[in-house]
Amino acid sequence: MLPLLIAVMAGISSGYFFEMPRLWLPAGLVLSLIALLLCIWKGFKDLILPAAMIVTFMLSVLNIHLYLYEKPDPAHIVHHAGQDILTVEGLITAPPKQSPEKTQVVVSAQRLRKNGAVIPVHGKILLNCVTDASLRYGQIIRFKTKLKIPHNFHNPGGFDYEKHLRFKGILVHGFISNPTHIVMLRENQGQPLRMHLEAFRHKLKTIIRTHSGSPAGGMIQALILGDQHEIPKTVRDQFNRTGVSHILAISGFHVGIVAFFSILMVRMIMRTSQ
Hints:
Elements lengths: L1 H16 L6 H19 L2 H24 L16 E8 L4 E2 L4 E12 L2 E4 L3 E6 L10 E7 L14 H7 L2 E7 L5 E5 L5 H20 L4 H10 L7 H10 L9 H22 L1
């Protein structure tokens, strides 16, 4: 398994840093698969692992290329980015991220109105807006904004914002400073299972608000639900100054704690049942 894991890591790294010709990847994958099958068929045991590593490498490169370098089709919303103010309708596909300054939502575009015409479109938009409206997953909203293509600052070794958004399938973003430029049209239009999960999440948030005051309630929401909106700014500033602001974000450490106590409880239950 270790050689295959190394091949996966090498393929992901190569695909991340280097864009390869589009026809080479499928052709290379087909040839490597044929070579692997021939090795298995002919009984070349010493060559099976190297051939499997090449197949794994090619699959990893192809997978990363589908995220980073796939060319959008003509109906994609990215082709309407520019200086014009557009009216767009779309579905909120993830729980909004709220902060005291703004609300950030990911919208899957469905149609836009441009020059009096309604144009079917698709593609995700990262929308930062200043609004008092209660935005939730599964809502269909209509908004006015200028769509722009995100760009990096090109600082050596800096964070690659473009690729970060591309991994999420986002090629354009917009900003809404006027609350009247965003309107909710319909609710409960998301996937049924996801809607139930979000309803459960909203109930947890209500329970925390009811039984915990500030700032404890806001910190509990940040740790359990990932929502830092209700943490007072003074408390966030204190965490930042002491260098422990990462504690307020859900991380592998928190998941590990939950997993540890879950396993511990299961083992205790199994022992008592014996």
